[in-house]
Amino acid sequence: MGEPKGDRDEEFQAFVIAVWPRLLRTAYLLAGEQYAAEDLVQSAAERACASWSKVRRADDPYAYVRRILVNQHARRTRRRPPELLVEAVPDAAGTEDGYARSDQRGALLAALATLPPRQRQAVVLRHWEDLSDSQTATAMGCSVGAVRSHAAKGIAKLRQVSALVELKDRTHIGGAV
Asked: What keywords would UniProt list here (predicted)?
């Protein structure tokens, strides 16, 4: 018949342990606060566990669970206004990267918090997670055209944020790119 329940549980546990840091980083960028991100990832993991047989058969189980996470976030943002992002983003490896100590990251996160939820999702998935338009569309549950529109509008708004413009000008004057 099927495989033993213990094997499925161990497989699910190994999967969650492997993808948790990446999911947490994405959730943090979407939700804006550590506690909200942890709650969002836990909720996505619960849903994935409930339908693990379906998730594990997917071409890309991580993408499947990321889609659950994005959907969970979308449901929550419809119910309440978005929260402001804080200064530090957890790194996928659990260690602080070079950008975590910079003013640039803080300014970018503050600017990201000003975007409407769908634009923030598109920008985070396209540019932070480095997904293609079609992968982002799948994760957001919309068309490729909608992803391009949301991402373009979000990037345009980010380019107008004075703190980011000042940082860009300072890095170009200082010689760094």
From this structure: DNA-binding, Sigma factor, Transcription, Transcription regulation
- Amino acid residing at 173: I
Domains of the chain: residue spans and CATH: 5-173 (1.20.140.160)
User: Do residues 52 and 34 touch, judged by C-beta distance below 8 A?
Assistant: no
Assigned token pair, 91: 């790194």
d(CA 42, CA 68): 11
Distance from C-alpha of 104 to C-alpha of 47, rounded to nearest angstrom: 35
pTM of the predicted model as reported, rounded to 2 decimal places: 0.69
CA atoms within 13 A on the CB side of 130: 1
Integer Cα distance of 40 and 18 in angstroms: 17
User: What end-to-end distance do the CA atoms of the chain give, in Å?
Assistant: 59
DSSP one-letter code for 125: I
pLDDT, tens digit, 9 for 90 and up, residues 97-125? 454 445 667 777 788 888 998 999 999 99
Contacts of 129 (CB under 8 A, 6+ apart): 26, 66
